[in-house]
Amino acid sequence: MWTYFLQGMGYGFAAAAQPGPFQTYLISQTLRHGWRQTLPAALAPLISDGPILVLTLLVLSHVPAWFERFLYIAGGLYILFLAYSAFVAWRRFDEAGIVPHSASRQSAVRAAMMNALSPGPYLYWGLVTGPILLAGWRQAPVNGVGFLASFYATMVLSSSTIIVVFGTARQFGPKVNRVLLGVSAIALAGFGIYELWLGLQSS
């Protein structure tokens, strides 16, 4: 169980630290309205990911064994791509331009809708976390539950930390975000290699 629990923590942290529309929204809202008003938006993935999770698990539970091996390899390559993207973003990090100045009056529900309409969660659950969750559940339901719980607990906690950091220490916020981005790139690279190893080992 601890293997899946630790994987859930790693992937949850990486998902929260990755630059994208949702993280940009959280930072923008924090700088505009303060961390107290923005903090509930960290729970948005809990709203949006439910249907995505059910859909991907229904599809993955009916695929043959050879396709599962393919998903591990494809997922490993996708994770390595995310690691490379995070590394590039870390190298080119612009502290002054991290937050766009467009109007951002969306609620947590709108943030969840934005997340649901983005291809990112579908790719993440279809290629990366979905196969791990399904494999853990097949071994023992507690493994799947542990992975899912640690993933979302870490993701929400990491997103909340980003919100609080940017809300209470704006002069340090971008620097902390750059550190998180670098750690995320390293963690994703390790997980990507591990996924490739699982896929090639099963073939």
Chain-wise SSE layout:
Layout: H1 2-17, H2 21-33, H3 35-38, H4 44-60, H5 65-91, H6 108-117, H7 119-139, H8 141-168, H9 173-202
Helix pairs in contact: 1-8, 1-9, 2-8, 4-6, 4-7, 5-7, 5-9, 7-8, 8-9
Key structural traits:
203 residues; mainly alpha; 9 helices; globular
Count, helices: 9
* Assembly state (oligomeric): single chain
Number of domains: 1
* Helix proportion range: over 70%
- Termini separation: 24 Å
Specify the overall morphology. Answer: globular
- Could you spell the SSE succession in H and E letters? HHHHHHHHH
The biggest beta sheet is recorded as: none
Helix/strand-derived class?
A: mainly alpha
Beta-strand residue fraction: under 5%
Q: Which stretches of 5+ consecutive residues score pLDDT under 50?
A: 96-106
Q: What's the total count of β strands?
A: 0
What is the radius of gyration computed over CA atoms, rounded to a whole number of angstroms?
Answer: 17 Å
Provide mean pLDDT, rounded: 78
Q: How would you describe this structure to a colleague?
A:
The protein is mostly helical and 203 residues long. It has one domain (2-36, 45-202). 82% of the residues lie in helices and 0% in strands. The protein has nine helices and no strands. It has helices at 2-17, 21-33, 35-38, 44-60, 65-91, 108-117, 119-139, 141-168, 173-202. Helix 1 (2-17) packs across helix 9. It is globular and about 50 Å long. The two termini are 24 Å apart. The model is unreliable at 96-106 (pLDDT under 50).
